[in-house]
Amino acid sequence: MPSSDTVPSPLKFFGRIPGTPGELTYAKDIHRYYESLANASPRAKFWKIGQTEEGRDQVVLAIADEKTLQQLDQYKATLAIARRSAKNQRPAKPAS
Questions:
Q1: Are strands 57-63 and 44-51 parallel, antiparallel or unpaired?
Q2: How far is CA 21 from CA 18, 24, 26, 37, in A?
Q3: C-alpha distances out from residue 45 to 22, 55, 65, 72, 75, Å
Q4: What is the pLDDT of residue 82?
Q5: What angle do CA 44, 49, 31 make, to 5 degrees?
Q6: What is the DSSP letter of 68?
Q7: In whole angstroms, what is the distance from residue 19 CA to residue 11 CA?
Q8: DSSP-derived secondary structure letter, 59
Q9: What is the distance of C-alpha 47 from the center of its chain?
Q10: pLDDT at 8 over 60
Q11: pLDDT band for position 1 (50/70/90)?
Q12: pTM (2 decimals)?
């Protein structure tokens, strides 16, 4: 990973490398790291998309160039249209 003065590395944030044998990194700590990346860089966007059955946050971290991140809603809308179209083109299930 390239070094940055503004974006924290996993080592700098956690004090160790996540995935090191014998080390466990909790999801809530990874979420905090993702949030710190999004706060430190215009090339990262973090948001919550829901909760698990256990009540834990489900999150997304998008990393791209700034222009792409600014157009995320447009891309989501395009994908939604494609999903609807694909769903409508599936053959109907036979009645049982």
A1: antiparallel
A2: 9, 8, 14, 24
A3: 30, 22, 10, 10, 14
A4: 87
A5: 55
A6: H
A7: 11
A8: E
A9: 7
A10: yes
A11: low
A12: 0.75
